Every structure is written in structure tokens, then in C-alpha cells.
Amino acid sequence: MGIVKISDELHEQIRVASATMDRSINAQAEFWIKIGLLAELNPHLAYNDLINKLLLNKPDLIRGRA
Questions:
Q1: CB contact at 8 A, 17 and 28
Q2: pLDDT digit of tens for each residue in the chain (66 aa)?
């Protein structure tokens, strides 16, 4: 595990989202990072498609071939 420095504003956004989504702050940040990475690797997919593929554990997502 490493330490990532983020702005206070982003930390506050993560804190609010984590409370809303019933996740820890670290889990919320990890989720957003994972979704952001997958969105960049798969720009042709909508958010709902990314979530569905994550739920189905599609390994091709990480290679940008959904």
C-alpha cells in the first residue's frame, strides 16, 4: 500500500461520497481510481457498462478491449 497526496477539496469530496455510499474513505478513493482507469482505457463504454463489466469481472477491461 502506498500513500497518495490529494488536495483537501478532493479529500472532502471523497469523504462525502464515502458516507453516502457506505464505504470507507480509502474504499471510495480506490473505487473512483478504478473507474477512472477503466474509463480511460475504454472510452467507448458508458459508466453503466463499466459497472456491469466490473460486476462480471471482465479481465479484458484492464487491457482496454471490452
A1: yes
A2: 789 899 999 999 999 999 999 999 999 999 999 999 989 999 999 999 988 888 887 666 656 665
Q: For residues 39 and 25, what is the distance between their CA atoms, to the nearest angstrom?
A: 21
Task: Count CA within 13 A, CB hemisphere, residue 43.
Answer: 1
Q: What is the Cα–Cα distance from 37 to 1, expressed in whole angstroms?
A: 18
Assign 1 to helix, strand or coil. coil
The string of DSSP letters for 3-65 reads: -----HHHHHHHHHHHHHHT--HHHHHHHHHHHHHHHHH-TTS-HHHHHHHHHTT-GGGGGT-
Residue 30 phi/psi, 5-degree rounding, is -60, -40
